[in-house]
Amino acid sequence: MLLNPVLSLGAALFLLTGCGFPRPLTCLPRERAVITETLYFGTAKPGGIVTAMEWESFVNNIVMPAFPEGLTSWAASGRWKMATGIVEQETSHILQLTHEGNQQHDTAIQQIMWRYKSEFQQEAVMRVRSEACRSF
User: Fold this and answer.
1) pLDDT digits (tens, 9 = 90+) for 1-49
2) Is domain 28-134 given the CATH code 3.90.950.10 in the classification?
3) Which of 28, 78, 89, 93 is most buried, most CB within 10 Å of its CB?
4) CA dist 71 to 3, 25, 96, 132, Å?
C-alpha cells in the first residue's frame, strides 16, 4: 500500500523537474555564447522630457565608451507604474548591448543605469538579461 503513494510522488517529481530547471544554452558550431542586455529608459522627468539631443549625448558620452564594440538603440512607447501608483505613459528608449558576461561589463551596465537615473531624475531603468548565441 505504501508503494503506490511513493510511486505517485516519484512520478510527480520527475515531471516537475523538466519544468523547473532551464536547459543549458547550446550554441551552434559557428556561434558564441553571450549575454544580451536590454535596458529600458523612460524620458519623462520633472519639468519636461529627456530630449533627443540629451539621449544622443548620453549614448555617445556614457554608453559608447563602456561598450565601444557597438550597441543598438530604438525609440518606443512605454508605460511605467511609479512608486506613487500613477501610471506614466511616455516615449522610451530601448538600448540593447551584447557582451561576454564578465564582471567588468556588469559593472558598466550598473553605472549606465545609475548615471541615467541620476542625470535625468528617473525612478528606475529596467534591465533584462538573457543568454544568447552570437555569430557574424
Assistant:
1) 555 655 455 555 555 555 566 678 889 999 999 999 999 999 999 899 9
2) no
3) 93
4) 58, 23, 6, 15
